[in-house]
Amino acid sequence: MKSRFNFHKSKLILTLALALVISFGFISLKDKEFDIVRNFDIFYSLFRELNFFYVDDTKPDKLIESAIEGMLTSLDPYTSFIPEKDMEDYKFMTTGEYGGIGAIIRRGGDYAMVLEPYENFPAQVAGLKAGDTILSIDGVSTKGKDIATVSELLKGTPNTAIKVKLKRIGTRDVMEKTFTRKKITIPNVPFYDLVEDRVGYIRLSGFTRDAGRETRDALEQLKERGATSIILDLRGNPGGLLIESVNVSNLFIGKDQEIVSTKGKVKQWDNIYKTALPPVDTAIPLVVLVNRGSASASEIVAGALQDLDRAIIIGQRTFGKGLVQTTRPLSYNAQLKVTTAKYYIPSGRCIQAVDYANRNEDGSVGYIPDSLIREFSTRNGRKVFDGGGIVPDFTLTQDQLSNITISLFTKNLIFDYATLFAANHKEFGMVSDLKVSAAEYKKFLDYISDKSYDYTTSSDDQLDELVKIARREKYYEGAEKEFEALKSKLAHDKSKDLQTFKNEIQLLLYEEIASRYFYQKGRIQASLDDDPELARAVEVLSDPQLYTSVLKSSFTIANTKTGMKGYLPD
User: Fold this and answer.
1) 206 with 304, same domain?
2) Which of 74, 109, 135 corresponds to the end of one domain?
3) What is the mean pLDDT of residues 321-347?
4) How high is the pLDDT of residue 569?
5) What pairs with residue 376 in β-bridges?
6) SS3 at position 312
7) In terms of domains, do 179 and 232 share one?
8) Rounded Cα gap, residues 231 and 22, in angstroms
9) Which tens digit of pLDDT belongs to each residue from 29-77?
10) CA-CA-CA-CA torsion sign (532, 534, 536, 538)
11) Total domain count for the chain?
């Protein structure tokens, strides 16, 4: 009966939609409108026949949703359908707020596990710790449930009670915690501090509501503490609300300055966004850190500050998302998030890297070709280019983690050791007290000695592929000894790799252990301990002559058309 009801409901929706299109077609029956009517009719006919005659029972609502998703996938990855059931998740992405306990969870065997509680929110206040296994929530077992389901059980209306049963490493008894859900607001600025004597550092991790206010508060407090220069860290920041990118830029730029403009097909929606508030400081030396994970609103801030010669950009070329999305209401409390425009920063350039409008024959998308990349100028006359992200004034190569480190991380061995460490050690006064010594690293090696964390290298993969080709072409038998000898020489040695890549493994251990005692702030502070981009930023800010020369027209930004594709995002 439910399937029949859903089918008739879907039939009614499709019929009404078809009627509207047909009505529109009678008013102006051009070729395009006729094509729409024809294809709607074909779609409805196909949908009807499929539901009546398919060998197994169908789920009409699911078919419609799949059809919608397929249609939107043909456009760009940012245009999406948001059904009513997913609206809370969407609101969290834009506001950073939800009702719940304030903890990140992950899969831990058959159950969910606390990955990290947020400081000063219900989970942490009630005593939940990273590594705790969640056995049940309000009497509902979490065994075998996916993380999305467990997350929904933890969420709820603020000020409602929740009872959680959990198991903690090092204890045999099942623990029970009862606490009250609260409105959880994830901060856009999780950490700020003086990293050198008079150099202030601000980590801006998102652009949800109040990002500008939070950054302003951090900036003003750092200035009160004696900061005479600022590092704004946008690495890994995926963006968010466009208006908040204007608010953040406004802290360093005077009123009535254009930061970004949007241009699309619907001309009345075209806008110019200017700074509207008094700035905090238009002269303080400023460095912005970016990487391939800096996108959208992050690129507006970095690009505007570069175009206006207000900051020096250090890091790697940014992602290259120059598309603006707007939400449009649909029936039954659903929403359409649709790309409506491209944004342009003060020099006039658009930093969109991927051309979704002109796909290849196989349906794949390509980057803006070099032949279409155009030159622009900053306020002081420095050359900059469009066509793919923001290129830093100082581009630094980002170190890649080794295969063994990635394996230790993905197998959760670093996480599990940090949990064990915290269970056996009391509180620490400072993050720096937690640095992983040679003796502690030796304990970690003993801990993983009987654990499984095998991995392959690129050499392994390439050799396996070569062997397959040799077998297919019947050359392998004649060269089997040579292949085996090469395989033996290329085989990775875990013991050797654990020493070769000791520093990066120790750093990840340091970050994970710091998060056990000082939460997200501790993790960030530990990650800055050996950070070449931060070190370069401090170096630039410590050299007034270099800083000034970079922002003058005589300085050439390493942002030429030559080899530009090598910088574009994958």
Assistant:
1) yes
2) 74
3) 91
4) 30
5) 384
6) strand
7) no
8) 58
9) 556 778 888 888 999 899 999 988 999 988 888 898 899 989 998 898 9
10) negative
11) 5
Do 61 and 159 reside in the same domain of the chain? Answer: no
Asked whether residue 253 falls in the same domain as residue 325, the answer is: yes
Query: Which residue range is the domain that position 433 belongs to?
Result: 403-455+492-541
Q: What is the CATH number of the domain that holds 136?
A: 2.30.42.10
Instruction: State the chain's mean pLDDT as an integer.
Output: 87
For the record, the structure tokens of 500 come out as 């070769």
Query: Tell me, what DSSP letter sits at residue 104?
Result: E
Question: Are residues 518 and 561 part of one domain?
Answer: no
Predicted local confidence at residue 21, as pLDDT: 47
Report pLDDT for 567.
Answer: 29
Position 84 in a domain: no
pLDDT at 141: 94
Of 172, 179, 250, give the one whose Cα is nearest residue 216. 250
182 annotated active-site: no
Last residue of a domain, one of 185, 208, 241: 185
Residues 284 and 345 in one domain: yes
- Which residue is it, tokens 């019929």? 15
CATH number at residue 268: 3.90.226.10
**Contact by Cβ (8 Å): 291, 316:** yes
CA dist 151 and 99 (Å) reads 11
Q: In this structure, are 267 and 340 located in the same domain?
A: yes
Q: Which of 132, 307, 393, 497 is catalytic?
A: 307
In a domain, 89, yes or no: no
Tell me the one-letter amino acid at 119: E
Residue 262: left (phi > 0), alpha (psi -120 to 50), or beta?
Answer: beta
Pairing of strands 286-290, 229-233: parallel
Can you tell me the mean pLDDT for 154-169? 91
Catalytic residue, candidates 10, 229, 245, 296: 296
For the question of residue 459 being annotated catalytic, the response is no
Q: How many angstroms separate the CA atoms of 133 and 105, rounded?
A: 10
Give the active site residue among 129, 145, 182, 321.
Answer: 321
Q: Clarify whether residues 244 and 221 are in a common domain.
A: yes
Is position 256 annotated as part of the catalytic site?
no
Give the H or E element holding residue 405: helix 403-410
Question: Angle, to 10 degrees, between the axis of helix 413-424 and the axis of helix 438-448?
Answer: 120
Residue with tokens 């599990």, as numbered in its chain: 416
